[in-house]
Specification:
19 helices; 802 residues; 42 strands; alpha/beta
């Protein structure tokens, strides 16, 4: 019985323009400049935890304001959830269903599982953090009850159009804003450096920093900003129904400028579109973004998406500090500068910048309100001894900024009419009584009222008269969706009596609906709370089982080692002949082999992967590790389906017991827990009986970034080095780029502790070094002794995953 909007969503004929609303001010900027919908976050579970975000009370009034204007609001719950946070998540879902939000945007399978089972009033959108990049992934979402997929930004227009033909699901795609170097949801860079996880909404953006490769400084991992304003007809033709603007961390001024520009182009008639695009591009130049790129939309190998010589900072570059005083800076400004503009100074060390608003401005020895481009200016700073000569100065907003205080925003929101609840009404007049039956959701009310009626000489009581009377809810926020009136006699009822009946009936109905909605909220909440798994009693430790991940089939004889229970080997779709040859060697060890499916599987290679899976199943292999939602369909129609042993890899995110249970619901028998996790959460998860086996990766090379972006001129034989002397290896293979630390991840040395928590299945990933290399042998020896290998990191295990 939620109060969701009935306004039309995006379609291929008229797309939805979807704007960020990281603050109340940005919400109004979006509304006033033509957004059809906005997405916003709450204080918890938002992938932009550093944004202002909104409260539940704010959201309630925002929904009133938006729905009154036929607009929609989607709420982001697109982070990974810790075990201890599940009770808060359940309460959040109950409140969002009660409020009637138009959809929630989801990453963690726990949110899907709980919403599907206990909060049916919530529409689900799959976040781009789920890395949906092929038709099989979209079709899987459709089967799971999602209504929309936010596609990976790595897809081309051609790939989107081909995908569109294979699904009826709503498709959403980013058209403007910051790009991640990595596939969204698959970056561990920030978390690796300090526990601030991008998948928990706290990315510290180390990709935007400057690095060194063979003494050449550059911004190797910093993409330019997406701008697809001249590709909107192509996106619509490809089947994208929602055009999304990135920027919940951006100012209201940015939102106003970008939404206004895209609205102008979307609404332009075909004959005027060229002029509209030209004007919109000019307006976008003032939005203080990075250099524009079309991203992958025009092809899989864009040359302008990441240029190492271009700074990764946002804002319009004004110049470098030529002189730094104790509390002022001097520089030659490239663009006009005004009192009221906001500046950010970026240190040459490439650490975080410092922002401040220009309060006074000096040109020469005179104070000025503004200075034209090309002028040497002196700007007093509120910070003492903070800046140095050579630091870069950026303008990040102008004096003309869209400004509205939070208090002013809330006053405007409270002026919106409460959202009416739709009702259907049946009316009958019989034996001097007006019989009414109303229904709204699960609530039904029937009442009879004595009325005075007179024979009608003209204009007898009819459906239109009744609609006119009962369409007005008065003080009760109800909306007449439909009215049925059967066999009305030719009489007249005094209008005053009809209005009094409406007032009495609607007053009772409104109270009944309110009580029913609250009872439904409590019932759904209690059901979901009861479904959360309790802690289980501690069980006796089982014998540890070791699985070793290999990089190729040449190390298959590792299975001769009695301490190795299983091996994981890569399934490479285009090398089916090699797979078949390797499979022949393994006929007697089939149950000890797990075939690892490639995480990224574009539609051009998906069928090859399916053929390889079927060939392996026919050869008697049953164990496969899945790493993306698009992998589940690979096993549809496979013979011996019931004999399959499917493992969920860590890229499917199992950070809590509900996510692990979700994979069980989909036929998975074992889940590999999330390597970003910390000690406390791992222990809490392992204390729950999810009904699936759990494995923990205890050693490996973590791919901090997986990307479709090719870095020209950078090879794997030399590291890319940070200003802190941290070294990273860049590898390119199969059209993908991976960036890994030279330092391995390892929990070896903590095995006894993990076993005490209840873990008994461990994965040692030696794909990057080889099982029989000196380093591989050292790691296996360290595992046998539970001794920490040299030069490794425990990632977040001993510190908190934030």
């Amino acid at each position: 019985m939620s109060r969701s909007s009935t306004s039309r969503r995006g379609s291929e004929s008229r797309p939805e323009l979807l704007s960020p609303a990281g603050s109340l001010e940005a919400f109004f900027a979006a509304m006033e400049n033509g957004a059809d919908a906005v997405y916003c976050g709450l204080p918890e579970f938002s992938a932009r935890a550093k944004a202002k975000n909104v409260t539940f009370d704010d959201l309630d009034h925002m929904l009133d304001y938006a729905h009154e204007r036929g607009r929609r609001i989607y709420v982001t719950l697109n982070t990974l959830i810790k075990e201890a946070e599940l009770p808060t998540l359940v309460r959040t879902l109950a409140d969002l269903e009660h409020l009637g939000v138009d959809a929630v945007i989801v990453q963690d399978a726990a949110v899907w599982r709980l919403a599907r089972a206990h909060f049916p009033g919530l529409r689900l959108h799959a976040s781009t953090q789920m890395t949906i990049h092929n038709a099989a992934g979209v079709r899987t979402l459709e089967k799971l009850g999602f209504s929309r997929a936010v596609l990976a930004r790595e897809l081309t227009l051609e790939e989107i159009a081909a995908l569109r033909k294979q699904t009826r699901l709503e498709l959403e795609h980013f058209v403007h804003g910051a790009l991640c170097f990595s596939f969204s949801g698959q970056c561990y860079f920030s978390s690796w450096l300090g526990g601030q996880s991008g998948n928990r909404g706290r990315c510290a953006q180390p990709c935007r920093r400057r690095y060194r490769y063979q003494q050449q400084q550059g911004y190797y991992f910093s993409p330019n900003d997406l701008c697809a304003i001249d590709l909107l007809p192509d996106l619509i033709a490809a089947g994208v129904g929602s055009l999304k603007i990135e920027g919940r961390m951006k100012s209201a001024e940015y939102v106003a400028a970008v939404v206004g520009a895209y609205r102008q182009v979307i609404d332009a008639a075909p004959a005027q579109r060229k002029d509209a695009v030209r004007e919109a591009k000019q307006a976008l130049k003032l939005s203080f973004g990075r250099l524009p790129t079309r991203g992958f939309l025009t092809g899989p190998r864009p040359t302008d998406i990441a240029v190492p010589s271009v700074k990764g900072a946002t804002g319009r570059f004004l110049g470098e500090i030529s002189a730094a005083g104790r509390s002022s800076i001097s520089f030659k400004t490239r663009d006009a500068l005004h009192v009221g503009d906001r500046l950010r100074v970026q240190p040459r060390s490439d650490q975080a910048g410092t922002a401040f608003t220009v309060k006074t401005l000096n040109v020469g020895r005179r104070s000025a309100k503004q200075a034209p481009g090309g002028t040497l200016v002196n700007v007093p700073s509120p910070f003492e001894n903070r800046f140095k000569k050579g630091d870069a100065v950026f303008k990040v907003s102008s004096r003309k900024a869209f400004t509205l205080s939070d208090a002013a925003c809330r006053r405007r929101l409270k002026g919106a009419a409460p959202r009416p609840l739709p009702i259907s009404l049946s009316v009958r007049l019989q034996n001097g009584q007006l019989q009414l039956k109303a229904q709204s959701g699960e609530v039904t009310l029937e009442r009879s009222f004595d009325v005075s009626s007179f024979a009608a000489h003209k204009n007898p009581l009819n459906t239109e008269t009744l609609k006119e009377v009962f369409a007005r809810g008065g003080d009760t926020p109800l909306e007449l969706a439909e009215l049925h009136a059967a066999d009305l006699p030719p009489v007249v009822i005094p209008p005053r009596e009809l209005k009094e009946i409406r007032r009495t009936f609607y007053g009772e109905l409104g109270g009944l609906i309110a009580r029913g909605r609250e009872q439904q909220r409590r019932a759904h909440l209690e059901q979901a709370q009861a479904a959360l798994l309790p802690e289980k009693q501690a069980a006796a430790a089982k014998d540890a089982r070791l699985t070793v991940a290999l990089g190729s089939l040449r190390d298959l004889h590792l299975l001769n080692d009695p301490t190795v229970d299983r091996i994981i080997v890569p399934l490479v779709p285009h090398r089916a002949a090699d797979i078949a040859a390797g499979a022949a060697k393994l006929r007697n060890r089939r149950e000890q082999v797990i075939w690892d499916l490639p995480f990224i599987l574009f539609d051009t290679t998906w069928q090859q992967a399916r053929d390889a899976v079927r060939a392996l199943v026919s050869a008697g292999f049953h164990s496969f590790r899945l790493n993306n939602l698009g992998h589940f369909e690979l096993f549809d129609g496979v013979r011996e389906r019931e004999a399959l042993k499917l493992t969920a890899g860590y890229r499917l995110f199992s950070l809590n017991s509900q996510a692990a249970s979700a994979w069980k619901d989909l036929g998975v028998g074992e889940v590999t827990l999330y390597p970003e996790d910390d000690r406390e959460n791992l222990a809490a998860l392992l204390r729950r009986d999810t009904g699936v086996e759990t494995a923990i990766t205890v050693h490996g090379q973590i791919p901090l970034i997986t990307s479709r972006i090719h870095i020209r001129g950078v090879r794997s034989d030399r590291p890319v080095v940070s200003d802190r002397d941290e070294k990273y290896i860049v590898q390119s293979r199969g059209g993908l780029t991976t960036i890994s630390s030279e330092t391995d991840f390892s929990l070896i040395g903590h095995l006894a502790e993990l076993r005490a928590m209840g873990a008994d299945r461990f994965v040692v990933d030696l794909a990057h070094v080889g099982a029989f290399s000196p380093r591989g042998k050292q790691i296996l020896a360290a595992y046998a002794e539970d001794r920490p290998p040299a030069q490794t990191s425990s990632f977040n295990f001993e510190r908190e995953l934030v």
